[in-house]
């Protein structure tokens, strides 16, 4: 039974295979009919001399193989070729000539300029706001005795006592952790190195190359003076110097207008090729509401450096127009004003400058403090007598500076800080200007002006300032021409 099934299966399989073959032959009849009897040598003598497509294909393959063999074999042969031995070289030892008798080698070559001394591994520290040198010594792990030794080693210790944010000090600890050396800048051009030893503190100084590079800038006020300065390439500090130069003639809080312009010649301080700090304004012009102001820096015969106008008259007035950096004027001079605390009409005999609590208040001019204390309504109050007729007064201070009654103060000196003591609804300075006991409006009162240079100094002034004034006029002329185009 099994044999019969297997035979039947074999017969079916054979029949299926034959059927597939017939189907394939019928489907590919044209291919088989074309290629089944093809040969390279069939009846070649009887055929005409011509190439068929098959010959072109096989010929192309043969040429490709020939080209590949011609390229690969020489390349492989070069890769396996051994180079000949390199040319031998001979090394000779040549003795250097002897130094002339009595001469010595320079100990600074290959060293730090001091024979036998290795350069310390300095730890550089930048002063932060509010830090003292004592704080820095403590942070670096050095005691007050080290600080005192450093101070005692200096005839003038002011560079160590009066430090400023951003100033750098360098310290080098010894093998045992004690202070071995200290480095600081005495001034822009002098570096001081102190070395601490058992027998005392030794000092060496190093001169550093300092140069001033002159710059020129021009700006037009659009949004603000600081924005105009930024567009002109000035730092904020230089913009403040520009404002201070013209601060006696222009109230930058009230008088500034869009379209005002300035031209300024200033310098930057570089030390050993690196920018150290902003320098000073040398000369400048400021056009405010169509009026042109000029400031040129000049040191007079007394050694005092001030800004002068073209005629040789100091821009500095005997009094500051505004003795505080304020944010706004909260109340003007008035003979009748509704008092914000008392609630009834009352004369306001000064100007109120709103400013943040703690803003420094400056003396408007040189004079003597005649009152310092509490005054009803004014809170913490100071009055300054400037001459036989003029007195200024300052009220609502949060606290006083280190000044006392009878003390002479100079223009711009800090005498107190903005607050809201007394009858006040917010922090501000109440400022009064009195002439022969009569109150005057501080914003409009005519301020006394400084005397011009004497005739003998005036000729020297004009000789020295003429090049800068001419350069300013050239700058203004170029800017005017560009604006016209």
UniProtKB/TrEMBL annotation:
<keyword id="KW-0862">Zinc</keyword>
<keyword id="KW-1133">Transmembrane helix</keyword>
<dbReference type="Pfam" id="PF01551">
    <property type="entry name" value="Peptidase_M23"/>
</dbReference>
<dbReference type="InterPro" id="IPR045834">
    <property type="entry name" value="Csd3_N2"/>
</dbReference>
<dbReference type="InterPro" id="IPR016047">
    <property type="entry name" value="M23ase_b-sheet_dom"/>
</dbReference>
<feature type="domain" description="Csd3-like second N-terminal">
    <location>
        <begin position="214"/>
        <end position="334"/>
    </location>
</feature>
<keyword id="KW-0479">Metal-binding</keyword>
<dbReference type="InterPro" id="IPR007340">
    <property type="entry name" value="LysM_Opacity-associatedA"/>
</dbReference>
<dbReference type="Pfam" id="PF04225">
    <property type="entry name" value="LysM_OapA"/>
</dbReference>
<dbReference type="Pfam" id="PF19425">
    <property type="entry name" value="Csd3_N2"/>
</dbReference>
<feature type="domain" description="M23ase beta-sheet core">
    <location>
        <begin position="347"/>
        <end position="442"/>
    </location>
</feature>
<dbReference type="InterPro" id="IPR011055">
    <property type="entry name" value="Dup_hybrid_motif"/>
</dbReference>
<keyword id="KW-0645">Protease</keyword>
<protein>
    <submittedName>
        <fullName>OapA family protein</fullName>
    </submittedName>
</protein>
<keyword id="KW-0812">Transmembrane</keyword>
<dbReference type="InterPro" id="IPR050570">
    <property type="entry name" value="Cell_wall_metabolism_enzyme"/>
</dbReference>
<feature type="domain" description="Opacity-associated protein A LysM-like">
    <location>
        <begin position="121"/>
        <end position="200"/>
    </location>
</feature>
<keyword id="KW-0378">Hydrolase</keyword>
<feature type="transmembrane region" description="Helical">
    <location>
        <begin position="56"/>
        <end position="77"/>
    </location>
</feature>
<keyword id="KW-0472">Membrane</keyword>
<keyword id="KW-0482">Metalloprotease</keyword>
């Amino acid at each position: 039974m099994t044999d019969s099934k297997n035979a039947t299966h074999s017969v079916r399989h054979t029949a299926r295979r034959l059927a597939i073959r017939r189907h394939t032959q019928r489907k590919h009849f044209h291919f088989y009919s074309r290629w089944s009897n093809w040969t390279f040598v069939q009846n070649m003598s009887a055929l005409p001399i011509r190439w068929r497509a098959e010959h072109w294909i096989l010929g192309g393959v043969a040429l490709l193989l020939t080209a590949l063999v011609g390229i690969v074999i020489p390349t492989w042969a070069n890769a396996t070729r051994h180079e000949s031995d390199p040319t031998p070289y001979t090394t000779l030892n040549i003795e250097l000539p002897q130094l002339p008798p009595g001469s010595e080698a320079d100990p600074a070559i290959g060293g730090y300029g001091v024979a036998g001394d290795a350069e310390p591994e300095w730890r550089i520290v930048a002063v932060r706001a509010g830090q003292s040198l004592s704080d820095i010594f403590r942070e670096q792990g050095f005691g007050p005795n080290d600080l005192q030794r450093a101070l005692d080693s200096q005839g003038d210790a002011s560079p160590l006592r009066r430090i400023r944010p951003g100033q750098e000090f360098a310290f080098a600890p010894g093998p045992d952790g004690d202070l071995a050396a200290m480095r600081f800048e005495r001034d822009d051009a002098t570096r001081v190195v102190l070395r601490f030893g058992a027998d005392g503190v030794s000092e060496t100084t190093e001169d550093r190359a300092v140069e001033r590079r002159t710059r020129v800038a021009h700006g037009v006020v659009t949004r603000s003076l600081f924005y105009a300065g930024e567009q002109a390439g000035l730092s904020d500090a230089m913009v403040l110097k520009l404002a201070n130069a013209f601060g006696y003639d222009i109230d930058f809080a009230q008088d500034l207008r869009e379209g005002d312009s300035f031209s300024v010649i200033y310098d930057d301080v570089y030390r050993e090729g690196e920018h150290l700090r902003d320098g000073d304004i040398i000369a400048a012009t400021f056009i405010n509401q169509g009026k042109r102001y000029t400031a040129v820096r000049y040191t007079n015969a007394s050694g005092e450096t001030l800004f002068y106008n073209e005629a040789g008259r100091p821009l500095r007035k005997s009094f500051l127009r505004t003795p505080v950096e304020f944010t706004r004027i909260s109340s003007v001079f008035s003979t009748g004003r509704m008092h914000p605390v008392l609630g009834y009409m009352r004369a306001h005999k000064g100007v109120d400058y709103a400013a943040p609590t703690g803003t420094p208040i400056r003396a408007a001019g040189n004079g003597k403090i005649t009152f310092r204390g509490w005054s009803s309504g004014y809170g913490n109050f100071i009055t300054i007598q400037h001459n036989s007729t003029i007195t200024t007064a300052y009220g609502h201070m949060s606290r006083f500076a280190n000044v006392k009654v009878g003390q002479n103060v100079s223009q711009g000196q800090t005498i107190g800080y903005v607050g809201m003591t007394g009858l006040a609804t917010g922090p501000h300075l109440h400022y009064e200007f009195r002439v022969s006991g009569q109150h005057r409006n501080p914003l409009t009162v005519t301020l006394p002006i400084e005397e011009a240079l004497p005739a003998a100094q005036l000729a020297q002034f004009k000789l020295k300032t003429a090049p800068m004034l001419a350069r300013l006029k050239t700058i203004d002329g170029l800017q005017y021409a560009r604006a016209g185009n």
